[in-house]
Design a protein that fits this description.
- It is built from two helices and four strands.
- By secondary structure, the protein is an alpha+beta fold.
- A four-stranded mixed sheet has the order 1-2-3-4, with no helix packed on it.
Length: 107
């Protein structure tokens, strides 16, 4: 099933100012949703990193999933020398790995 294609990304500042926890700055999030609405974009994916752990959703990732199962979650792990990127569909109590492909849109 094709979910969508990324046409823009919206980096968010960490409202917690913590190297171990992340919560998107509300004003950044509001601005991102406002811009998406104006441009007719739908939210298809959210990305974040796990600097010291695997690219597997944590309990916190599941608990703070405010977007239901319709949004893909991309997690980049820097646990090893070679970064690893995995995609997930999150439910309230579980995560299912998602299939995805990276297409270079510059061609």
């Amino acid at each position: 099933m094709r979910i969508g294609e990324v046409e823009a990304h919206y980096p968010l500042r960490n409202a917690l100012a913590s190297p171990r926890e992340f919560f998107g700055e509300p004003s950044d999030l509001a601005g991102a949703f406002r811009d998406m609405h104006q441009r007719g974009f739908d939210l298809v994916a959210i990305y974040h990193s796990h600097p010291t752990t695997a690219a597997i959703p944590s309990r916190t990732d599941l608990e703070q999933n405010f977007y239901g199962t319709a949004v893909m979650h991309l997690i980049m792990s820097f646990q090893r020398a070679e970064p690893k990127l995995r995609a997930w569909m999150l439910g309230p109590d579980q995560a299912t790995e998602a299939q995805w492909i990276l297409v270079d849109g510059s061609a």
